[in-house]
Write a structure and sequence with these properties.
The chain has 339 residues and is an alpha+beta fold. β7 and β8 form a beta hairpin. The chain has 2 domains: 191 residues, Histidine kinase-like ATPase, C-terminal domain (Heat Shock Protein 90), CATH 3.30.565.10; 113 residues, Ribosomal Protein S5, domain 2, CATH 3.30.230. It is 29% helix and 25% strand. The strands form 3 sheets. The protein has an 8-stranded mixed beta sheet. 36% of the residues are buried. The mean pLDDT is 93. It binds adenosine-5'-diphosphate and magnesium ion (MG). The site of adenosine-5'-diphosphate has 23 residues, from α2 and α4.
């Protein structure tokens, strides 16, 4: 029998990886913003056209890349963020998989401009479907600009599967909120179709929340602070009277990364025990800091889920910290006659 197994060419492998990493324009926004943060930027600009279907651009003032690194950044499994498997458990960066730029370049037109602080000129690289179409020196400010145009240009099925501009923009705004909330120490500006949608100056956490969700939010926030050996909690929960029918403003960050956790969400809901009207949900903006050794982030390509070593302990600490904060604010249970 003839041998039938073949190694897939890189551009095919990249396109397959892209299927996991890039679901929609908002995924590109997330990956580019995270790279800008990992580069140590304190000012980041996000530019969107047509809900990201024609353009997603992120411009940062971070450390930039050398000529060689600029080219390597588009290779799969190429990363400056980890060196070995042990590093996965002491992560201080958002990225580590080294596949975002390779994936994005496999399914879009990408233009990179980047310059390191000590260089006079920078580098530009244009990629189309995993191929370099031009590479040159360029005059550009310190930092990196990545433009992603015509997403899914070579995968019509994915392109057709995209939702309306309104829906895709909503996803982008959600991603932007998550990243901006996790990093109040970074200034963000967001232009949507040429209009300034958000301008968030460097600030503290409370101000960042208020700048995003409006001045009225300020009076709704109850501070939560707790520090134990295994978990540090800092942030805010919403006063019960402001609870809403939708689950909109519920944010957990673990080591500065937005995380979805039904289990920890339940810890909070149960801390509100008796304080919420049936069918309503309190807002929360909580930063959890844990030893990176006690979590595994590498369980999903988009890194929005985490495996905690000891979820039960975190649940108990979180629940009691939130309960304590709500109690301090003398919030009495509501008498809910509808129940
Ligand atoms: P990862 O972030 O997982 O390392 P990416 O594909 O997102 O993988 O990026 C590959 C590499 O390119 C990064 O490790 C980093 O060295 C470099 N890079 C990407 N974006 C930027 C940026 N905005 N500024 C500086 N370096 C960047
Ligand atoms: Mg990355």
């Amino acid at each position: 029998m003839a041998d039938i197994i073949q190694l897939l060419p890189d551009h095919v492998a990249n396109q397959i990886a892209a299927g996991e990493v890039v679901q929609r324009p908002a995924s590109v926004v997330k990956e580019l913003l995270e790279n800008a943060i990992d580069a140590g930027s304190d000012s980041i600009k996000l530019i969107i056209k047509d809900a990201g279907k024609t353009l997603v651009q992120v411009i940062d003032n971070g450390k930039g890349m050398s000529t060689t690194d600029a080219r390597l950044s588009f290779e799969r499994h190429a990363t400056s963020k980890i060196r070995n498997a042990e590093d996965l458990f002491q992560l201080h960066t958002k990225g580590f998989r080294g596949e975002a730029l390779a994936s994005i370049a496999a399914i879009a037109h990408v233009e990179l401009k980047t310059k390191q602080p000590h260089d006079d000129v920078g580098n530009t690289i244009v990629m189309e479907g995993s191929k370099v179409t031009s590479q040159d020196v360029v005059v550009t400010p310190q930092g990196t600009s990545v433009s992603v145009k015509n997403l899914f240009f070579n995968i019509p099925a994915r392109r057709n599967f995209l939702k309306s501009d309104n829906v895709e923009l909503r996803h982008i705004i959600d991603e932007f909120h998550r990243v901006a909330l996790a990093h109040p120490g970074i200034g963000f500006v967001f232009y949507n179709n040429g209009n300034e949608a958000f301008n968030l100056p460097i600030s503290n956490y409370r101000q960042r929340i208020v700048n995003i969700f409006g001045t009225k939010t300020n009076e709704k926030l109850v501070p939560v602070e707790e520090e134990t050996e295994v978990l540090k909690i800092s942030g805010f929960v919403g006063k019960p009277e402001f609870a809403k029918k939708t689950r909109g403003e519920q944010y957990f960050f673990v080591n500065d990364r937005f995380i979805k956790s039904a289990y920890l969400n339940h810890a909070i809901a149960s801390a509100y025990d008796g304080l919420l009207k049936n069918g309503t949900h309190a807002s929360y903006f909580l930063n959890l800091t844990v030893d990176p050794q006690t979590i595994d982030i590498n369980i999903h390509p988009t890194k929005t889920e985490i495996k905690f070593d000891d979820e039960h302990t975190l649940y108990a600490i979180l629940r009691s910290a939130v309960k304590h904060s709500l109690g301090q604010f003398n919030i009495a249970p509501v008498l809910d006659f509808e129940r």
